[in-house]
Amino acid sequence: MNEIRVRPMSDADVGPSIELVMTVFEEFVAPDFGPEGVASFTEWANPEALADRLRGGCVAHVAVEEGRIVGVIEWMLPDHVAMLFVDPTIQGEGIGRRLFGDSLRQVQASNPNVRTVRVHASRYAVSYYHRLGFRETAPAQEQDGICYTPMSLKVKE
Fold first, then answer.
1. Whole-model pTM?
2. Rg of the Cα trace of the chain?
3. Residue partners of 46: CB distance under 8 A and separation at least 6
């Protein structure tokens, strides 16, 4: 594995980040969704919508390897991971863990009172979030056709 750099998402990163998100979504997440869920996610995960969220106060970071975006994380501040996606060709190499940890430190630096991080994990991602230390806070749910499991992680006592 080459050197991975985690940095805040720039305006120029929005398009390539969404391409990565949609590649991973279509392969691993969409099969668990019906047409309504796929349409809802696709509407939410497009370059214009992401750019609007970033202008509205969300924060996003990218993991970059040799100039290529290999991971994306978006936070709805102060404490909700809105999305975390890693290039499927290098999943399992620690990039997601690094991206989550580095971005969490940056989020905590600007929001020191964050004690718990929340996420709505897709069925595909539940076991991954377990490995990060998250635990379910409610049974699996569905909203607008999007299936997810609410999870949380204590980051401060």
1. 0.96
2. 15
3. 18
Q: Which residue type sits at 20?
A: L
Tokens of 157: 């006592």
* Nearest-5° Cα angle at 98, 96 to 104: 100
> Residue 116 is which amino acid?
T
pLDDT, mean of each 10-residue run, the chain (157 residues):
90 98 97 96 97 96 97 97 97 96 95 95 97 97 96 91
Strands of the chain (E only): list them.
4-8, 59-65, 68-76, 80-86, 116-121, 135-136, 141-143, 146-154
pLDDT of res. 156: 83
HSE toward the beta carbon, residue 30, CA cutoff 13 A: 14
- Phi and psi dihedrals of 132, rounded to 5? -80, -10
